[in-house]
């Protein structure tokens, strides 16, 4: 197969790093061996995810169980999905689209979204999933940046968010509407699929051919359109196996929406490549529904987000009592810092380990993780997976300095793994700024301890400098939620004449607690006891909710901008919030 050549770091000095390098190369060879490839040295993600399993005699294996909002249940085998995606690819082709064209998906977690994603890839076209809850403007901007040629959506979303402007986007030629009827100038997907042929040979792609465009969450600013290639499937295969222990038949549930990268890499590609039986729930978070699904669907590996666990914690342990989680092997989360408190809570309530994972849209797949057999340190992201070389660096002008154990710096990675982004669309300068001295710089601050565990400190942008100290918001937030009244916390630095910045905390309370001066004092006292007077927040402000992105991340920059009366910046990914 034609995979990219793995870039070798230019300045490998320490022997420890060298060992990692050897380990790294081994893993990608291993990952390649997990894949099938197409004749003539080409590959296609959809072939790896679906068709090859059918050819190998696993067509009747369960691939996806889909649960609708109202409880409808639909089951799909690998053969079913191979057939559906072939039909979808044929529909695209019948409407004049060809290799390299861009197809955007805009709908909730409906079956058609999954079919569209893999059908598009099968046809050799590029897929870009968007959150269905985005307003018309963020949708339009992203489709302009991505030069969309086709859109798959629902009639309701079309009427509210697309109809008014799509004819002004010259690249956009085709709108497919889920269901049997379509508005004028659009095509109804139902009849088109029914009439299409259920066979389609996956288009042979080079490993470096563009496959997906994923927009980042927009937590720190204007979202970037990260470009990913077909060869990325090697990462999905390997990390699915190593970090999420995927194996054929595994009952697996990833709660993420494909509107952000987790929902695609680990909600579509990795599970199907590893031939697991995945669950897709159309509904949003609902405490009892989620506990019930874990129990009834006998989920063995559950991949979710810290915010979901914090919501469960807020509802209290009692709510989990009636359910049986005996099928569960472990749970894992990604996307936000996982407070040690949450790890301990989940251990107790589920009786299973909780594995924090770190990665980002740009890395395309899991990079740092807690894995089975590791001695889990609550609050640590874990260690780099085999195949990854991480470091902690400080930018000093043009130069980079590598930091030692226990020092805080920017988390950096040696480039060269298959799912690394290949660029930000139309933003070459922003892309190039991510690389220096042979490293990819992640924009996150972290610390590596003497045992090789990585600890998240905060986003570089969120770092607080007070009286000569550097404070990562995560540490403070984790201490705050250990207070019995605090469900969630966000911490920012506000300008201060004497200290440079002072720490301000916003907290949401657990049920049964009301904001009061005494409670504010008690929370501050608790933080002071755990963190000391310099690091503890000077002020604690009560909120009903915190501003967050659609992917569930707290937008600290927005809290700060609002506090300081500054422009809010890009808030296209903001979930409606009450402040
Ligand atoms: P933008 O880049 O547009 O500001 P974003 O960085 O939130 O948005 P994503 O790529 O979806 O967009 O999120 C990746 C980021 O999420 C990481 O860089 C990190 O800051 C945070 N993150 C992910 N996993 C973890 C984790 N386990 N612990 C702490 N932070 C995490
Ligand atoms: Mg980011």
TrEMBL record:
NCBIfam families cross-referenced by the UniProt entry: PRK04319.1
Organism expressing this protein natively: Rhodovulum steppense
UniProt xrefs under InterPro entries: AMP-bd_C (IPR025110), AMP-bd_C_sf (IPR045851), AMP-binding_CS (IPR020845), AMP-dep_synth/lig_dom (IPR000873), ANL_N_sf (IPR042099)
EC code: 6.2.1.1
Recorded GO MF terms: acetate-CoA ligase activity; ATP binding
AMP-binding enzyme C-terminal domain boundaries: 475-553
Gene Ontology annotations of biological process type: acetyl-CoA biosynthetic process
Presence of keyword Ligase: yes
Gene Ontology CC annotation, any one: cytosol
Name of the featured protein: acetate--CoA ligase
Residues of the AMP-dependent synthetase/ligase domain: 55-425
Secretion signal span: none
Key words of the record: Acetylation, ATP-binding, Ligase, Nucleotide-binding
SUPFAM superfamilies attached to this UniProt entry: Acetyl-CoA synthetase-like
């Amino acid at each position: 197969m034609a995979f990219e050549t793995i870039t070798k770091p230019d300045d490998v000095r320490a022997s420890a790093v060298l060992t990692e390098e050897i380990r790294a190369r081994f893993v990608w060879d291993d990952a390649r061996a997990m894949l099938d490839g197409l004749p003539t040295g080409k590959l296609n993600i959809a072939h790896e995810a679906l068709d090859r399993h059918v050819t190998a005699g696993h067509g009747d294996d369960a691939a996806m169980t889909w649960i609708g909002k109202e409880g409808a249940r639909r089951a799909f085998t690998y053969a079913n999905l191979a057939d559906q995606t072939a039909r979808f690819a044929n529909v695209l082709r019948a409407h004049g689209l060809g290799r390299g064209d861009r197809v955007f998906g805009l709908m909730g977690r409906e079956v058609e979204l999954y079919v569209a994603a893999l059908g598009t890839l099968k046809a050799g076209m590029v897929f870009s999933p968007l959150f269905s809850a985005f307003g018309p403007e963020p949708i339009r901007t992203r489709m302009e940046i991505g030069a969309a040629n086709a859109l798959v959506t629902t009639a309701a979303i079309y009427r509210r968010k697309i109809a008014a402007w799509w004819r002004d986007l010259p690249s956009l030629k085709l709108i497919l509407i889920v269901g049997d009827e379509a508005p004028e100038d659009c095509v109804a997907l139902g009849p088109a699929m029914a009439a299409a042929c259920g066979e389609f040979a996956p288009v042979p792609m080079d490993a470096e051919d563009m496959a997906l465009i994923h927009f980042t969450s927009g937590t720190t600013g204007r979202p970037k359109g990260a470009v990913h290639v077909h060869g990325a499937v090697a990462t999905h295969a390997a990390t699915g196996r190593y970090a999420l222990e995927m194996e054929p038949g595994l009952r697996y549930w990833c709660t993420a929406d494909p509107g952000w990268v987790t929902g695609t890499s680990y909600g579509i590609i990795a599970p199907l490549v590893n031939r697991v039986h995945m669950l897709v729930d159309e509904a949003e978070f609902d405490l009892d529904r989620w506990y019930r699904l874990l129990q009834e669907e006998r989920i063995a590996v559950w991949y979710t987000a810290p915010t979901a666990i914090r919501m469960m914690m807020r509802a209290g342990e009692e709510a989990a009592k009636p359910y049986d989680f005996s099928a569960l092997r472990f749970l894992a989360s990604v996307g936000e810092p996982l407070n040690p408190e949450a790890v301990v809570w989940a251990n107790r309530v589920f009786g299973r380990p909780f594995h924090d994972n770190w990665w980002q849209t740009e890395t395309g797949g899991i990079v740092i993780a807690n894995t089975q057999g590791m001695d889990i340190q609550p609050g640590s992201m874990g260690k780099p997976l085999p195949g990854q070389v991480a470091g902690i660096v400080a930018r000093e002008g043009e130069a980079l300095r590598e930091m030692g154990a226990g020092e805080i710096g920017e988390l950096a990675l040696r480039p060269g793994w298959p799912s690394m982004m290949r660029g930000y669309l139309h933003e070459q300068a922003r892309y190039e700024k991510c690389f220096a001295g042979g490293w990819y710089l992640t924009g996150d601050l972290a610390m590596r301890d003497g045992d090789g565990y990585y600890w998240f400190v905060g986003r570089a942008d969120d770092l607080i400098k007070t009286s000569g100290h550097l404070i990562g918001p995560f540490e403070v937030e984790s201490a705050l939620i250990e207070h019995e009244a605090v469900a969630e916390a966000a911490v920012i630095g506000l300008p201060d004449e004497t200290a440079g910045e002072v720490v301000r905390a916003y907290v949401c309370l657990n049920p049964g607690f009301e904001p009061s001066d005494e409670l504010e004092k008690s929370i501050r006292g608790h933080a002071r006891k755990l963190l000391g007077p310099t690091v503890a927040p000077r002020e604690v402000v009560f909120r009903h909710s915190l501003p967050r992105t659609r992917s569930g991340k707290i937008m600290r920059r927005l809290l700060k901008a609002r506090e300081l009366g500054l422009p809010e910046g890009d808030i296209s990914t903001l979930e409606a919030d009450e402040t």
